[in-house]
Amino acid sequence: MAQFVLESKLERVGLAHTVVVDSTGISDEEAGNPIDHRARRTLAAAGYDSSRIIEHRARQLEGEDVVGNDLILAMTTAHARAIRRLGDISGVPEATDHIRMFRSFDPFAPAAVSFHDEFLLDVADPWYGGMKDFQVCLEQVETATDGLVEFLIQTVGKG
Predict the structure, then answer these.
(1) Residue 124 CA: distances (Å) to CA of 3, 52, 54, 109, 136
(2) Are the C-beta atoms of residues 126 and 134 closer than 8 Å to each other?
(3) What is the spatial distance between Cα 62 and Cα 83, in angstroms, rounded to a whole number?
(4) What is the pLDDT of residues 3-39, one digit of tens each?
(5) Are 96 and 83 in contact (CB under 8 A)?
(6) N or C: at which end does the chain have fewer Cβ atoms within 10 angstroms?
């Protein structure tokens, strides 16, 4: 869901052709699968372009992704740890300097001062829940995305 929210907001501020957004997962369990039907329904109900949502296919994060991207956003502490491990395996010491928790851009999220309290910034995982859980997740994503877009405007400019 975060990919579609971020792409939509980047389009609105004129950064859609400057910032490349790519969504990946930590495990290979969902690789090749379309977006979860509950996530698709939640996004469509919130007004996101469902034609692009239908085309999405999950893929697993690889070591090259960790080294080859300017910013990597982790949705949970477990994801952040797995991404850092992939970066460590890559043999590039600074490979993990650009990994941030997605909700670190949310002005209403609790402050995490170190790796030990990153869990405070976990995005609620709706996978085992119902539609309400997907709506909560979307709300967290949207709020953090506003701050992320502001960060990107400051970092890469306004296109």
Answers:
(1) 16, 24, 23, 12, 7
(2) yes
(3) 9
(4) 999 999 999 999 999 999 988 877 777 776 788 889 9
(5) yes
(6) C
**CB-based burial of residue 141 (10 Å sphere; 0-12 exposed, 13-18 middle, 19+ buried)?**
buried
The pair of three-digit structure tokens given for residue 73, joined into one six-digit string: 């956003």
**The amino acid at 27:** S
Identity of the residue numbered 12? R
- Taking a C-beta distance cutoff of 8 angstroms, is the pair 77, 116 a contact? no
How far, in Å, CA of 20 to CA of 6, rounded? 10
Q: Helices (DSSP H) in the chain: which residue ranges?
A: 2-12, 37-45, 50-55, 63-68, 77-89, 131-156
Q: Which two tokens stand for residue 90?
A: 């890559």
The listed range with the strongest mean pLDDT (23-32, 85-94, 121-130, 144-153) is 144-153
Residue 44: C-alpha distances to residues 14, 41, 58, 105 (Å):
22, 5, 18, 24
DSSP-derived 3-state class of residue 70 = coil
The whole model's pTM is what?
A: 0.86
